[in-house]
Amino acid sequence: MPVFTFSGKNAGGEKVSGERTAPSKQMLATQLRREHITAGAIRQKGKEFAMPTFGTGKVKTKEIAIFFRQFSVMIDAGLPLVQCLEILAANQENPAFQKTLTGVRTTVEGGATLANAMRQHPKVFDDLTTNMMDAGETGGILDIILQRLAVYVEKAVKLRAAVKSALIYPVSVVSLAFLIVGALLKWVVPIFANLFIGLGVALPLPTRVVMGLSAFVSQFWWFFIVGVFGVFFGIRQIRKDPRGRYYLDWMMLKLPILGVLLRKIAVARFTRTLGTLITSGVPILEGLSITAKTSGNAVLEEALMKVRKAIEEGRTIVDPLRESGVFPNMVTQMIGVGEATGAMDAMLQKIADFYEDEVDSATKDMLAMLEPIIIGLLGVMIGGIVISLYMPLFAMIAKLAG
């Protein structure tokens, strides 16, 4: 008979591991259950389980949301867990996600819980998902947890789309403007410069400045490409350092227009995540840890970890939230009311709904404000170059007319 290695927890919650001979993984899992051992992983010795290769494709958030929605319907209909995973994997178009679900099914067949099986694939299923799954399996409400996860992920996709729409338009327009200006300085201005040199006319200051810029761009065009990549990789290196990431995120939150939007996004994400976790039965201390890790902002992460520490010391959640200075007064007051009335999960969801609407409104306002500013800058940059090139011609025409 084949030899299997296993790891898991006994009835007392202690970690156990070892080697056993058994006809199959299923038989070994059954044997371990009789001994009150919950197996986390079972592998055949000499035959390692092949983890999914994520290089073949990336699992999109939208695909995960659809998976949770379909999974909840199947569980609610009474289908066995392994059969649900088998059907969902077979009908999955993304090869990477298909391999992941197949791996989860194999691990569950080996006797592991769904949460532990998903923990083996952290690139697809994060701590929030696995902890909610754990709570769902323990409470026997897996279908409800899956529905909540589907709603949470769908709202996260919507929020991310709002951020992209807020940033893509101004960034793309400004980038296009610089490309147009660069093309004018590199190819158009030199034609006029050669014309003016041939005519021997006196050039006004704006024309000399533009010609100087043109000469610099023609000779050192590579400098701008190196500069863009240098800034990009420099920011990446800074973000790898915890303090550097903290100061970058702090600066982003302090920006005049964008900072207000980013703060609202951070509050919406925080309240939605923590509200979903608490509603699903995850303890508040663990919920705060998960929310901090998934916040996407180092300033918010540090503030939430301080809040968690304060709650461990016996304080309420309101005072440390207010002392952090990250969250608006309205948010802390509403959370305080929710804590006092024992309905903090519902209050967090209401705050999240409100701030998600605020994000939509702030995005539209920001785009409406930026559009005339960007158009004005484009006009000044391109119009300034054109006018500076025609100024010597106007002076020549004036002399000929006189």
Structure, briefly:
The protein has a 3-stranded antiparallel beta sheet with strand order 2-1-3, covered by helices on one side. The longest helix is centred in the middle third of the chain and has 58 residues. Helices cover 75% and strands 5% of the residues.
Structure in words:
Mean pLDDT is 84; it is low at 47-57. This protein has three domains: 3-44; 54-153, Receptor-associated Protein (Up-down Bundle); 156-402, Up-down Bundle (Receptor-associated Protein). With 402 residues, it is mainly alpha-helical. Helix content is 75%, strand content 5%.
Q: What is the CATH architecture term of the largest domain?
A: Up-down Bundle
Morphology call: elongated
Question: Oligomer, anyone?
Answer: single chain
**CA-CA gap between termini:** 108 Å
Largest sheet: 3 strands, antiparallel
CATH topology of the largest domain: Receptor-associated Protein
Portion in helices: over 70%
Count of individual helical segments: 15
- As a percent range, the share of strand residues is 5-15%
User: CATH-wise, what's the superfamily of the largest domain?
Assistant: Type II secretion system (T2SS), domain F
Average pLDDT confidence is 84
Number of domains: 3
Secondary-structure element series: EEHEHHHHHHHHHHHHHH
